[in-house]
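REVIEWER CHECKLIST
Item 1: Sequence provided? yes
Item 2: Single chain? yes
Item 3: Sequence as submitted:
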Amino acid sequence: MSTHADTDGRDSSPAKPRAQSGAKLRDWAPLRLAKAGLRRVFDRLERGADRLFSPALNPLAQLGAISFFLFWVVAVSGVYLFIFFDTGVVNAYSSVEWISGAHWYHAGVMRSLHRYASDLMVASMALHLLREFSLDRYRGVRWFSWFTGVPLIWFLYMSGITGYWLVWDVLAQYVALVSAKLLDVFPIFGEPLARNFLTPQHLSSRFFSLLVFLHIAIPLILLLGMWIHIQRISRPKVNPPRLLAGLVLAALLLVALWKPALSQGPADLTKLPAVLGLDWFYLPLYPLAEAWNGWSIWALLVGVSTMLAAMPWLPPLRRAPAAQVDLPNCNGCNRCVEDCPYEAIRLVPRTDGAPFARQAQVSPDLCVACGICMGACPSSTPFRRAQDLKTGIDLPGQPLAEVRDQVAAAAAGLAGNARVLVLACEHGAGGGDAGNGVVAFPCVAMVPPPLIDYILSRELADGVVVAGCGESACYNRLGVEWTKQRFAGTRDPYLRKRVPRERLATIWASPFEAGRYEAEKAAFSARLETLEKTEPPAARQGAEEGLEEEA
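Item 4: Structure as written out by the authors:
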C-alpha cells in the first residue's frame, strides 16, 4: 500500500548527508556541486513529468529507450527517402526538392520526420548523459556503459553531418567547406580535401557516392556501438512503452506537418553562402570553426571527449565489499541471479557436494553491493532462532544478522501510540536520519519481505514505512520495481498475505522531496492511531519459527 498525503510535494530540501554502507562517494567540490545542481533540476522536471505522464510513462526516466526508438524512426524514414533520392551531385538537390514539394504528403513528411527525429535523438542522448551523471550512475562497475557511450556521440554527429552534405543546398555547401578545412589539418589526403569544393568542376558524383556510403555505414556502426553499450546492463530498456513511443511519434509528425524541413536554396560553389539557418543540434561548433583554427577545434573536441571518457575515474568510486555466497544456505534457486540489476551473479555447477545441481557465484568486479540479492534470497528470514544468522547470499558490510539487530535497536527507541519504523534507501529522502527510528540500506529492495512480517508480528512497531528512491529515478534501477512486485505477491520472495497491509506504507521520494516524505509519514502515523490494537499472534508466530528452523 502506498501512502499519498494531501501535499503538493514542493519541498525541495535535500535529505541530510549520510554515511553509505554501499559505494562511498568522494567527489571534488566543483563536481559535487555540479551533480547537486543537475540532480535538483532533473528532480523537479521528473516530478512534473510523473504528474503529467505517470511514472511508468515518464520520458525522462526512459531517455535511453527513447534514443533507441528514435534511431529506428530515423533509419526507417531514411530508407524510405533513399528510394526517391538521386545520389549524383547534379540531381541531388532537385531530387530533394521533388521530395519536399510535389510529394510533400508522403516523402516530404518523411524527410521532416527524418530531420526532427535526428535532432530529438541528439537531445535525448545529451539529456541521458546529464541525468546519469547527476545520479552518479557512471562510476565503479558502471564505467562500461558510460565509457562505451562516449564514442556514440561521435558516430551520431558524423551520421548527421554526412546527411546534411547529401542535400546539397547552401547549408550543405557551408558544412562541406568547414568540414573539409577541419579535416585538412591532418596530412592524410594526397591533396587538400577543400579543393573539391572550390569550383563545380572539382566536385564529382563519385564523391557523393562516397558520402552515401558513409551515411549508411556510420549508422550501422552506431547501432553496433549501442548494442555494446547495453551489454553490462541487466534487463536494458531498448524499447519505450508503446504508448510513450506512440506519443513521441505523434509529436514528431505534428512538428513535421507544422514546420516542414525545407532546403535553403541550391549550392553554388562560385558564391559563399550569405545567410544560413543552422541546425544547432548538429552544427553548434561550425560558427566557432570559422573563428578558430582547425587545431584548436580538434583540441577542444578531443579534450572534451577524453574528459568524458575518464569521468568514471575522476575521482574513483570507493567500492564496498561485494556480496558473498554462503554455500550451506544456497540451493541454487536462481532468484538472486534474476533480481541482480548488474548481472553480477550467475549459477555454476555445485562444488561442495550438496544435493543441489548449482550454486550462486558473485563476480566482485561487477557487484555494486546494492544488497538486492539478499532481499531476493528465500533464506533471508529473521525468524530463525539460530545465533549465527546466515543467508544464502549476504552483504559483508550489512549482513542480515546485523540488520535484525539494527531493526531491534531502532524499534527500542520508538514511543507513542503509533510507533513507525522506517526501512529506507540511502539514496532517497527517508535515509537521512538513520538510527532515529530509521534503518538505512544501500537499496530498498535489500529488505527481505519476511523482515516486515517479523517487525509487525513481534510488535516491534505499530507500522512499517518502506521509503525508497524517487519512483522514476531508482539509484539501482530495479529496486523500486522489485519491491513493488514482492509486496504485490507477483515476485518471489513475496510478502505474505497475513501481513496487515494497513500497517505498511511505501513512500517513493528523492532526496529533494524531504517535505513530502515527512508529510506522508505523518499521515500514515495518524492513520495508525485510528486502528484498533491487535493481539500478537503468538501461536501463529511459533508455528512460523518452527517452519523456518526446519528449512
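Item 5: Key structural point noted by reviewer: The radius of gyration is 29 Å.
Item 6: Recommendation: ____
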